[in-house]
Amino acid sequence: EHLFNLKFAAKELNRNSKKCDKEEKAEKAKIKKAIQKGNMEVARIHAENAIRQKNQAINFLRMSARVDAVAARVQTAVTMGKVTKSMAGVVKSMDATLKSMNLEKISALMDKFEHQFETLDVQTQQMEDTMSNTTTLTTPQNQVDMLLQEMADEAGLDLNMELPQGQTGSVGASVASAEQDELSQRLARLRDQV
Q1: What is the pTM of this model?
Q2: Higher confidence at residue 187 or residue 76?
Q3: Under 8 Å between Cβ of 15 and 62
Q4: Name one Pfam family in it (predicted).
Q5: Is residue 33 within a helix (H) or strand (E), and if so which, with residue range?
Q6: pLDDT for res 54
Q7: Which of 65, 116, 124, 135 is deepest in the core (most CB within 10 A)?
Q8: Is 104 part of any domain?
Q9: How many domains does the chain have?
């Protein structure tokens, strides 16, 4: 509540400062009119008013800054009190958790998680391979080739030169067969588990 009042007071002082700035500008405009009419005494009165408004604007602004600084300090104190209370609660919770933690159970749980993650990875790969083979079989290869050629013609490309070719040679084949063997072994282990 006090913090709100302080912030409100700072805004009010700032608003008064801006109001005084406007009054100062209005008084300066009146000075010009009085000078144009040749009425120097009235011009002097408006000049005094303009100077007074300028000084009031500066004073209001200075007071607004001071009140705003006090509000910031109060806000910091309130926030620190809340943080301290929260940290005390967290420390108590951490103590209770550390006392009840069983590192062997956590380690076993993490191992089981890793194993299940690997199993999921193998199953996902197998499903993707199956889906890929099924989609390839249901789409006639000659239609795929014709569509590729048609798109290449529209784009003005030579299909044989622009499209990337598959790897050739024994190194590519040996790496692919090694990966296939590993996947087959993992799949076999999965089937044995189920």
Answers
A1: 0.45
A2: 76
A3: no
A4: Snf7
A5: helix 2-37
A6: 92
A7: 65
A8: no
A9: 1
